[in-house]
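Ticket 4471: requesting a sanity check on a complex prediction with adenosine monophosphate. Repro inputs:
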Amino acid sequence: MDGKPLDLVLLGPVGAGKGTQARRITTKYGVPHIASGDLLRAQIAENTELGRQARIYMDRGALVPDDLVIGMIVERMRQPDASRGVLLDGFPRTLAQARALDRELEDENRVLKLALYLEVPFEVLVERAAGRWTCRTCQTTYNYRVNPPRKPGICDIDGGELYQREDDRLEVVSARIKVYIQDTVPVVEYYRERGILRQIDGTRDIEAVGEEIERQIESAVW
Ligand code: AMP
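Returned structure tokens:
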């Protein structure tokens, strides 16, 4: 790589495979994985003021207001480990967030290299998300059908207990996917117009999707 920061956005609704692919990208390219949903859940777990406010929206599958999310992400992006680039997952979800991200990068003489959009049909997303279990300690997700843990109920990575997130229940999942598609289409178009959007067929297996993502990153950066 040319030594410049590698700033990437991973787009796609819940169940599109973002978490799994994000871990792969982070390992390969050494940029921190910044997932807005994980950061918000950490705020809830710590019972901060932000967490208490965010929870009201998250429990019903709605988007947390822009100002809360933008403040949280900008703060995270200013930490030292983010100076060589970031992989954003779950952010931006609205045009206001996309513009705030541009401003933040511009302030540091950086520019977004690529927006990777993992595309999966609605029915497949609902099915995948509803079978999803998350590790209580490291947040790794599993799917009992396509990506099961080696031992049922136990995380492969750190042995943590797997649980089904409140917002991964079927009704909430369907709402989250609809909200995602509705709110994020403008973000997808925004990046398409700028020529940095890459649409990726997320219905293929994890390895095939991962390889295509790497090809896209390498052709955009080198
Ligand atoms: P996720 O883990 O990305 O599926 O996010 C879980 C929930 O957190 C979403 O359903 C939203 O309520 C909230 N959330 C996460 N990221 C954002 C964001 N960028 N903007 C607004 N709300 C968000």
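Notes from triage: The chain has a mean pLDDT of 91. Leaving this open until the requester confirms.
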